[in-house]
Amino acid sequence: MLEPEHQGRQRKNLAEALRSLRSASGLSGSRLAVRCQMSQAKISRTETGSTLPSVIDVERILAALDVPEEIARELLELARTANVDYTAWRTFARLGLHQKQAELARVSEKPNVDIAIIPQTVQVPVTPMNIFVIYDDRLVTVELFSGEVVLRTPQDISHHIELFELFMAHALTGAEAKAFLLDRADEFMRERE
Hints:
Blueprint: H1 5-25, H2 29-36, H3 40-48, H4 55-65, H5 69-95, H6 97-107, E1 116-117, E2 131-136, E3 139-144, E4 147-151, H7 154-169, E5 172-173, H8 174-192
Antiparallel strand pairs: 1-5, 2-3, 3-4
Helix pairs in contact: 1-4, 1-5, 2-3, 2-4, 4-5, 6-8
């Protein structure tokens, strides 16, 4: 399981804060568990940092301890941040993002493949509202949330070709795209160490 250093610190800080609050309240872990309708083992794992509690679990613990609103707000924000980071890193690791980027970089070397990437930092004057595919000068498909639209009129096809060319003008291609992919893959691996 991958956990960046900052995520581990957030979990530890949250665990220590919850343990300190319970201790200051004079409640035992067992008594708090009863108040929260959780197992004593879950309370223990949460307080030692071996389990990352959900935001709902933290809300239940804070309510059972009758924690002042300002402190509760801070701890809930810490719990939200820790859970989002944890999920994101676990998801990226599971998907093998760094491997996919390196694989795309290798695929980009094939003579029949063109990969174009618009980095997030590049300002493009328009934002695509839907995914579209240009098959040729007679057919364009546009994917919507509820289905797919087939466009065959010359004006619609011309509009989408111009839109595609605009995006391509802002994209990295060829060796630049490959270097970008490999750099992002390396950056991902460095961040998780």
